[in-house]
Prior knowledge:
Blueprint: H1 13-53, H2 64-87, H3 93-135, E1 141-147, E2 151-154, E3 157-158, H4 163-173, E4 177-181, H5 182-186, E5 196-200, E6 211-214, H6 217-223, E7 231-234, H7 236-242, E8 248-254, E9 262-263, E10 272-280, E11 290-297
Parallel strand pairs: 1-7, 1-8, 4-5, 4-7, 5-6
Antiparallel strand pairs: 2-3, 2-9, 8-11, 10-11
Helix pairs in contact: 1-2
Amino acid sequence: MFRKRKPSSAIDPQQLSLVEYAQERIAQKTWFHRHLLASLFLIFFALIANLAFEYKAEFMPFNTKWSFALATLLGALLIIHFLRVYVFYSFMGNAWETQQMEFLLEKQALKVEKLKRNMDKEAALKASAEWERENQKTNITMIAAAAENNALGKDNKLIWHLSDDLKRFKNLTKGHHVIMGRKTFESMPKALPNRTNVVITRQKDYTADDAHIVHSLEAALALAQEDEQPFIIGGGEIYRQGLAYADSIELTRVHADFEADTFFPEIDPTKWREVWRENRDADEKHQHAFSFIRYEKIKA
């Protein structure tokens, strides 16, 4: 003999309730089908008995009218049973509906609590990230030389030659990571010495001597995270992306306008403040006047 297995305690109570509901519904449908067959048989028997054999009142305690009344009563009961099982679903009762509502409310409360915990966790992580950002030792710096109209270069070449600017670039970036786009790297005769060269390119199979190859600015900054001051050195698109990550800008502003195809992004005065400046006049070594300017990002 097979015994009915007792449901495991590990089953979700709501799932168990739904199983019981399904079992009850099957039982009710089975009972309705039996009721249907029995009612059809009795109605058929009563009608045939009256129409075929024409029983008289002296032989049976009922007549034709009574048999039709019986058939009508059986049909009415059958219709009521049908409506309860297939239309109104009332066989489960209000208690079951209340129980299901309690299950749903409890489940919804658990979901709300879980969402609240996740939001609290995200808020804590965000606060931690902001604190680390404010207290980090790394100073991501963009360094560039740009004209008054923000011109940087043309045909992947510098437009001017300012020896003091080149010396300052060398002194500031020496020993640090220098992050650049592929075209900027290819404009140089070789990788910059005494620095860790990081080249950003979309080309998955790109290789270069004495340089690390990455495929996004985020990956480049991750590679340089141990450097206390990594430098973003160009070109125009890398500078544009770098504004969101940089903490400071070392800018050599050349006081002239030039025709160019690569430009430095505009520096928003509401987000950056000038903290230092040194002006230089044109001379025998410098065809144009220029200024060394340092900007720092304004903390929100």
